[in-house]
Design goal:
With 356 residues, this protein is α/β, with parallel strands linked by helices. 27% of the residues lie in helices and 30% in strands. It comes from marine sediment metagenome.
Length: 356
């Protein structure tokens, strides 16, 4: 990346940072900083070197974690698109509370450097606003962090949330928060989000995602989202996300194609069933299947922790929110689910615990 592209207004904790300052700060982080600071320092040095690309690790939540190579120019384009959408001006304040090991944290750094933001860095803990006494114009969190920061979210004017599904309970809590919170849709391959939807400020229930500028969306013959975003990806991205296209610029996410369960010829979407059950169960859960000689796949409910299975099944039936095919044939419990760093449940790995 061109070293001259560092915005002259870029600052860290209120102090304007020149290129030399940035290099010095990075080495300081690497030599003397905590682990999350070392990751920040290493990324910044990678960012300002002469290579036109950077290697990024995927989270592995929907498959095996892998390293992909992204053009720095495309990361800049993504940062500019976010800046335009959220009206982030030079000297706007931004909070970095995500690890710089993954794309979301890296992009917060790129946005700050390219847009001239005043970046404030805190540990990427589950309670990032604990002890923070100032306000920010922009921030990004995973749902777990948001859930633990509800009382202080008013400190972040515009908050984007991604990395893991947002529970119905959290969605309801966010409606009463005075800031503007947005759910994002994206992945490492799209350099974070290519679509957003508001979660409060009068947002309509079940509102679709709206795509950012310079993004074209279609569906393939499976009903999965296809993304053409030339400013952030050289390739057309074919996802495994089943969607409903509302318009050329809007879509509703329905679930993962690779999670669909075929039980006796009936195709069942786990994410849709989970959405219906979200007000019935307080603890973490997901829908999956086990082999069945007659049906092929038998629908089951997997619950984290302990549960009174008979009582829970009775409650599910009594709620009358599921069709007869969507009612789990069995309820299984697992003490602790396997999760990604962002809190997303790794379904396949968790199911191996059940079968062990």
């Amino acid at each position: 990346m061109s070293k001259s592209s560092l915005h002259p207004s870029f600052s860290v904790h209120g102090k304007v940072i020149s290129l030399n300052d940035l290099i010095e700060l990075s080495y300081s982080f690497i030599k003397e900083g905590k682990e999350f600071e070392k990751n920040i320092g290493e990324f910044i040095l990678d960012w300002i070197n002469d290579s036109p690309t950077i290697s990024v690790q995927t989270s592995g939540s929907t498959g095996t974690p892998k390293t992909i190579v992204i053009k720095k120019e495309q990361m800049v384009n993504s940062a500019l698109a976010t800046g335009k959408y959220f009206n982030l001006l030079p000297k706007s304040t931004a909070l970095l509370c995500l690890p710089a090991t993954y794309i979301a944290g890296k992009m917060m750094l790129v946005r700050a450097m390219m847009l001239g933001l005043d970046l404030h860095i805190v540990s990427p803990s589950s309670k990032p606003l604990e002890g923070v006494n100032r306000n920010f114009d922009f921030g990004a969190m995973v749902p777990l962090q948001v859930d633990n920061s509800i009382e202080n979210l008013h400190r972040i004017k515009n908050l984007i949330i991604g990395g893991a599904p947002i529970s119905t309970a959290l969605r309801n809590e966010l409606k009463n928060v005075s800031n503007a919170s947005y759910e994002t849709y994206g992945m490492t391959e799209t350099i974070t989000h290519i679509a957003v939807k508001p979660l409060n400020k009068g947002a309509v229930e079940n509102i679709p995602f709206s795509i950012l500028p310079d993004v074209i969306i279609t569906k393939d013959d499976r009903g999965c989202l296809v993304i053409n975003a030339p400013k952030v990806s050289d390739d057309t991205i074919v996802t495994n996300d089943v969607v409903e296209l509302i318009s050329d610029t809007e879509f509703k996410w329905l679930g993962r194609f690779d999670n669909i369960i075929n039980s006796g010829g009936i195709k069942l979407n786990p994410e849709q069933i989970e959405s219906k059950l979200s007000n019935v169960l307080e603890q973490a859960f997901f829908i999956n299947s086990v082999f069945d000689a007659k049906l092929g796949e038998q629908l089951i409910l997997v619950v984290e922790g302990t549960a009174n299975v008979a009582s829970l099944m009775k409650d599910i039936v009594a709620e009358n929110v599921l069709s007869k095919y969507e009612i789990p044939r069995q309820i299984k419990t697992i003490p602790v689910f396997v999760r990604t760093e962002s809190g997303k449940v790794r379904r396949r790995e968790t199911m191996t615990l059940l079968k062990a």
